[in-house]
Design goal:
The chain is built from no helices and 11 strands. The protein is globular.
Length: 124
């Protein structure tokens, strides 16, 4: 069993930065797949980024702006978000599962463990 807790969300102006953290307890995050997803009001939960076996993947809309990294010593995965846009506004969730094939990291159905989410609001 893995418990995930996100933090680092908040209100930021467009062009600003935030760093989200996903801290795990109960089991080490590595080696596992850890993903970040987001959900805006009235929208489905969408893939943002993931790290699996040391390989990272991103949705096109955040490439070059967001970076996912892991700190095994702290059992924490981070999502550094730069050049934020109003359309990045959403609740951000981290999720984890045992190592997933890279081709499957984008589907939330493949993740067994989820955090409670942290709100990110980007003002224009």
């Amino acid at each position: 069993q893995v418990q995930l807790v996100e933090s680092g969300g908040g209100l930021v102006q467009a062009g600003g930065s935030l760093r989200l953290s996903c801290a795990a307890s109960g089991r080490t995050l590595s080696p596992n797949t850890v993903g970040w997803f987001r959900q805006a009001p009235g929208s489905e939960r969408e893939f943002v980024a993931a790290i699996t076996g040391g390989t990272t993947g991103y949705t096109d809309s955040v490439k070059g702006r967001f970076t996912i990294t892991g700190d095994n010593a702290k059992n924490t995965v981070y999502l550094q978000m730069n050049s934020l846009k109003p359309e990045d506004t959403a609740v951000y969730y981290c999720a984890a599962n045992r190592i997933l094939p890279f081709s499957t990291i984008r589907s939330p159905r493949n993740y067994n463990y989820w955090g409670q989410g942290t709100q990110v609001t980007v003002s224009s």
